[in-house]
Inverse folding.
């Protein structure tokens, strides 16, 4: 168990750390967390609860994910950690020349072009088949019920939904976007917080996914609907692209940080960036959290890790440098040595040769899941397949059209991916799942909550409540409204270009569950920057 003081609560919050024993689900939407616990009480394990929560979130938080999302999972079960990469590849006919022939100099953010094969439905089916106690017909019942009967929109969700709807009125032009407005803004506006929203099409699609174990989505009736819509509007995604897809089980990667193993999914995910940042700092001594030197070295290490990650990470088979090289002690020492007293403008180095939803679950048997799925940049591509409720992601947006770039677009290639689940263990014992969703904030959030936990002994809720910063580019650092002013001023004197955000949005939304190996008691925290909730049993 992480050594934290359960009574230590240095940051203002309306929440205390939550304890449970038989089961726990932490996520960004209260009804979704309760859906996971409901399935656990019906005989499901932590895996079934994760599936139920993830499916429910496609209904309960459509501003961040959907049935057309990608997903990743870290699953601790029977004494071993397993990794699932359910990100999709680019369509067979999506080439650099084909995209440029449409008049683009870069892959666009919206529309048919940036859509890659969605992996989330396949992830649910794969997890249920390999580790679940229940079939999808049971685990998806809460999601189907919320889509059929409706639910009251929560405050943070309502704000994001309204912002997106206003933007899309002027952004989305063309028949291919009509289904987005029919589905998510039927009265030409987003539903207000407290109003009831329902989606019968969404419910029908989830039923079909459940009854066919996701086969319909990739090789059946739903696949036909998806491919017809893309064919009609000149998209690249085809029926064959869907039919050939399956998620991939992978070996998680880790670094040892002060006696704890911090685990991430290997590339194409950006979890490697969080590990490189921690690896750079593991020989430093941090005596106080709220100290200028602590923040300065954290920021500098993350800037270097991110510049290296953006230069080297893509689908692992296409990388020029291995994960082992990027996580080597020699490379970490090389990067550590250039961190000085002043802020630097980062640039990538060559290593020595050698808008997302997150949830965490745990059950009484010791099984634990760290799960994340996302449409990317809010609602994703803006493409909704008519009469299905399927909102498609836009992960192809991160591909480069420069053939020499490591993340250059190629057919059937998985792009650099921002969504990353995290897991913490010590020796042979699991500590638990953690994650901080939010685009390029994610590895930065991972590093900050792990250091708050291990270096400064904060409990899960306090670690999530703590002030956050985000590296933007160069020496520009954005800090949240709770960030101490005296530290911000001191960092400015070191050359950091500090900008204070007026809102808590953009600093990630995290969840943590830690397990006491002696008592089996679970300790959970949820993000104060969203409608977060920890459901316990």
């Amino acid at each position: 168990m992480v050594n934290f003081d359960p009574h230590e609560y240095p940051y203002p919050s309306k929440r205390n750390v939550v304890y449970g024993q038989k089961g726990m689900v932490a996520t960004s939407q209260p009804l979704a967390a309760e859906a996971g616990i409901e399935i656990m009480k019906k005989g499901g394990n932590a895996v079934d609860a994760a599936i139920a929560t993830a499916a429910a979130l496609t209904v309960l938080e459509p501003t961040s994910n959907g049935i057309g999302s990608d997903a990743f999972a870290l699953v601790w079960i029977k004494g071993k950690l397993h990794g699932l990469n359910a990100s999709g590849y680019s369509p067979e006919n999506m080439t650099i020349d084909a995209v440029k022939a449409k008049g683009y100099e870069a892959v666009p953010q919206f529309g048919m072009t940036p859509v890659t094969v969605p992996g989330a439905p396949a992830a649910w089916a794969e997890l249920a088949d390999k580790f679940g106690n229940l079939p999808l017909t049971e685990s998806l019942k809460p999601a189907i019920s919320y889509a059929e009967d409706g639910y009251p929109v929560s405050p943070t969700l309502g704000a994001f939904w309204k912002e997106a709807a206003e933007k899309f009125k002027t952004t989305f032009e063309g028949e291919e976007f009509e289904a987005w407005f029919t589905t998510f803004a039927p009265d030409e506006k987003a539903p207000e917080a407290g109003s009831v929203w329902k989606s019968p099409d969404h419910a029908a699609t989830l039923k079909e996914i459940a009854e066919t174990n996701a086969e319909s989505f990739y090789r059946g009736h739903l696949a036909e609907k998806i491919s017809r819509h893309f064919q009609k509007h000149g998209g690249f995604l085809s029926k064959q692209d869907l039919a050939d897809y399956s998620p991939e089980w992978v070996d998680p990667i880790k670094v040892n940080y002060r006696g704890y193993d911090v685990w991430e999914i290997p590339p194409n995910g950006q979890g490697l960036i969080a590990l490189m940042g921690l690896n750079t700092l593991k020989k430093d001594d941090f005596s106080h959290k709220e100290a200028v030197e602590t923040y300065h070295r954290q920021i500098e290490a993350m800037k270097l890790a991110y510049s290296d990650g953006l230069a080297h990470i893509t689908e692992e088979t296409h990388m020029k440098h291995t994960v082992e090289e990027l996580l080597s002690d020699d490379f970490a020492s090389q990067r550590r040595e250039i961190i000085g007293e002043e802020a630097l403008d980062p640039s990538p180095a060559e290593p020595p040769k050698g808008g997302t939803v997150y949830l965490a679950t745990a059950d009484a048997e010791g099984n634990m899941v760290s799960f994340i799925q996302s449409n990317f940049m809010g609602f994703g591509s803006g493409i909704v397949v008519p009469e299905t409720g399927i909102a498609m992601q836009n992960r192809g947006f991160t591909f480069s059209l420069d053939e020499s770039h490591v993340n250059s677009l190629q057919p059937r290639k998985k792009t650099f991916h921002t969504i990353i689940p995290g897991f913490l263990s010590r020796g042979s014992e699991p500590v638990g799942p953690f994650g901080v969703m939010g685009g390029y904030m994610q590895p930065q959030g991972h590093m900050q909550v792990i250091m708050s936990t291990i270096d400064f002994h904060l409990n899960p809720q306090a670690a999530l409540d703590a002030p956050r910063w985000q590296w933007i580019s160069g020496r520009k650092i954005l800090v949240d409204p709770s960030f101490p002013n005296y530290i911000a001023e001191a960092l400015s004197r070191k050359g950091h270009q500090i900008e204070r955000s007026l809102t808590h949005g953009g600093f990630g939304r995290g969840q943590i569950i830690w397990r006491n190996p002696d008592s089996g008691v679970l300790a959970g925290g949820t993000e104060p920057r969203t409608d977060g909730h920890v459901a316990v049993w």
Notes: The chain has a mean pLDDT of 94. The chain has 19 helices and 21 strands.
